[in-house]
Amino acid sequence: MWSSTSFLLPWLSLHDQWDDFEDTRALRELKPDLVLFTGDFGDENVELVHSISKLNFLKAAILGNHDCWYTAELFSRQDVSPGYSPCKSECNAVDAQLQSLQDSHIGYKRMDISELKLSIIGARPFSTGGNTFGPAYGIITQRFGIQGMNHSAGKISSLALQAPTGHVLVFLGHNGPTGLGSKPMDICGKDWSAKSSGDHGDPDLEAALKKVKERGSHNVQLVIFGHMHKTLSLGRGERTMLVRGQDNIIYVNAAVVPRVIAIDASKCHPNNTGLQTFRNFTVIDLNNGQVEKISETWVRVGDNVSVDHEHILYSSLTPQQSV
Description:
By secondary structure, the protein is an alpha/beta fold. The protein contains 8 helices and 13 strands. Strands 1, 2, 3, 10, 11, 12 and 13 form a 7-stranded mixed β-sheet that branches. Strand 11 and strand 12 form a beta hairpin. Helix 6 (149-161) runs parallel beside helix 7.
């Protein structure tokens, strides 16, 4: 039987914005069944990742391009043929993060959660977006044995198709798939220069999803990712952060950066003292195997902890335009 409601809480694109005490207080207020991280914890911030690994919540994470920022550059200067074995100094930071996360790191893996009737499918870690593996190619081939986009797509789809019957499937990637638009404001659209445009999604993830959908044997509800920040470059406004496909799969980008805003509480209300922070989370509610609500939620943490406000991205009660 389905639980009446399950809560997913993706926590995306931290970029060093993490405080053990304050973020744990916020999580206790939200009471999630599962916490998801889509990477970019920092530029190989081993200490932060280790801290998150100790978080006393059920969690799954995938490392992003910033999480191999320096190591990928070292690999890109080396021969990464099958016989190549990099020296330890090139790998310590990436290895340390993977060792801290252990089974919580979901890249090219699947996490089956029987009590929630849910399977989390890990896409390609360390993604920079676009048609190549980019600087992380050497890391991906050495750590995961993946040799190219087709191989990657096959690995991801195989994981999904082997999920337990009756489980809802949620794909977790650092970046989203191709096929969701090519304008700068689109959910995976290029935005980093005045002339830039184009689809910067991951083609292997799109191919994997296509194969799973064609098989028709599993209930794919969500694809969750980050990487492409909500605020567009050059002051061009904000990115579309959620789309619903013609296949009714919901694609959500929760890379709200910065995700922490600090204020002097005493200036806002005389009864408050000291510094308060607003901390952003994207909260996803599932009910009976279907997405019920998705919201960008800001939690106020100070003398007390409470949900300050939320921006609803999706509600099953409101008609949604498909792409």
